[in-house]
Design goal:
The chain is mainly β. The protein has one helix and ten strands; from the N terminus they run H-E-E-E-E-E-E-E-E-E-E. This is Pollen Ole e 1 allergen and extensin family protein.
Length: 144
Amino acid sequence: MAIQTQNLIKILMLLLMISYATAWTGEIHGRVVCDVCGDSSLGPEDHVLHGAEVAVLCITKSGEVVNYQAFTDSKGVYTVAETMPESERWDACLARPIRSFHERCNHLSDATSGVKFTYKRPSGHSYALRPFVYRFASSPSYCM
C-alpha cells in the first residue's frame, strides 16, 4: 500500500511539473523571387522561385544551436516553424538563401546574402523576412 501511495505521489508531481512547462511556437517565413532584369525592382517580368533552398540557423535562450532547411512552395514562400518549451525559445537567427534550382535565374543578388535578427515575437506569431532575390547571369534583351 505504501508503494502505491509513493507511486501515486510521483505521478501527481510529474503531472504538476508538466502543467507548469509552457510551450512556445515560433515561425519564420519569407519569399524567394527572380529579378529577371536585375533592376532591383519587382515588375511584371519577375516571378517567384519554386523549390529554392533556404537555411535558417537559430540560437535558443539556453545557447543551443538549431539548423533548419526549407524549400519554397509554388508561391515562392518558405516557412520554418518550431514548438518548444518557453525557456528554450529562439533568441537570435540567421536566414540565408542556399540555392535556386531555376535553369537561368540562379545568381544570387549581392543585397541578399543573409539576414541576422533577434526573435522577440510572442508564441504563435510569425517573423516575416524580406525576399531573397536571384537574377539571370545576363539580362534578356527586352530588359534593355
